Amino acid sequence: MQKLQTVNAETLLYEPLEKPSFVVDSLIPTGLSLFCGSQKIGKSWLMLKLCLCVSQGIPLWDMPTMEGDVLYLCLEDTFCRIQDRLFRLTDEASGRLHFAVASCKLSDGLIVQLEDYLKDYPDSRLIVIDTLQKVRTASKDNAYASDYGDISLIKDFADRHSLAVIVVHHIRKQNDSDVFNKVSGTTGLTGSADATFVLEKEKRASDTAKLYVTGRDTPYQEYTLRFRDCRWELVERKTQEQLAKETIPDVLFRLVDFMRDKEEWIGTATELLAAMGETETIPTVITKWLNEYRTTFLSENRICYQYSRRKDGRRIALARRAGDSGDAGMLGDDVLHRGGLLRRCGHPPHPPHRPRGAGGGCGGLHRRRMGGAGVLSVGRFGVQGQKRRLGTKSPQSPFVSQSFFRAYLPMGS
Questions:
Q1: Where are the alpha helices (DSSP H) in 57-169?
Q2: To which H or E segment does residue 227 belong?
Q3: How many Cβ atoms from other residues are within 10 Å of residue 284's Cβ?
Q4: Is 199 helix (H, G, I), strand (E, B) or coil?
Q5: I need a labelling partner for 407 at 20 to 30 A (CA). Which of 32, 185, 198, 310 fits?
Q6: C-alpha 95: how far from chain center
Q7: Which residues contact 301 (CB under 8 A, 6 or more apart)?
Q8: What is the pTM of this model?
């Protein structure tokens, strides 16, 4: 039995290891990729264009490629059909692009055939298998195990030789909110692959399609492509960061501009919208969005947000942070007091000879309970004193939120 090979954490932490490279910069990594789409959508045209670019070392759209030998297994085509496509795509081609229209099945020696090919062309960078079903055999095994086993054989080959292998596959007809769930077969296919691509049209007759990309070394991306003169042209590319930013309501971007020349702003949601000149957003919606994006978008733009419900209405307090701060969503006591989110009390200040948290004083300010109309929280008593006043031994109190304890109790309490 072969001994288990292990690597300790210290070695991984300090020893430089080779990172995965990309055959097409930021798009196609070395390893196994699944390229999926409906039948006759134009997958083979895009694969042929990709193979031409890599074999000649020219960019695919605006992305650089790693030049090298390329093998394209066109298992559903003939050499005559491939020739006709080349006539339409290019005026010159490289001798580094190789085609085959027949091969063994995975269970009958395909990996051996690919190993022999690499002996003749050791500088190969890309292999395309079109399609997966042409190299599989019927199996009585569990469907997931069969899918995972077949893909793992190809992935192991790609990893051993540090090259990119793209397997073309189909998608199911039924709709799904997640396009990657449309890949035909079980999750054993997408689970084993290093990257998954789904090419999809909204309408069959449309000349525009979306290319969705996700993977272990490839961040989620969306490409809008247009099929014109037998070529897929790039219309637009959106990264994960750009897509996330698109989900942020436009009014919050205008809020950031509104706060740019202000240190703080206090008032109701209605007053805020009026001050910003907003007429299409209602107060309840802007309040919800402020709370939803306070720890992400607002914090990234150095805006702190607090909210309080009082007998005379609901009040919002906004303030700009100067520099980095750990309390991204908390405003200072002076701002909160002016906004009515803190109340003064008659308790004596904290004794100077006793550390805060040891009891005996509150500092004179009390935070109002968030979300409770007219309900006041306790002041800054010591840990045990605060718990006694709340009538509970746990921060999970129905009378005060857990964030209150994090904000006001000393560390280690």
A1: 79-89, 110-120, 143-161
A2: strand 221-228
A3: 10
A4: strand
A5: 310
A6: 39
A7: 256
A8: 0.67
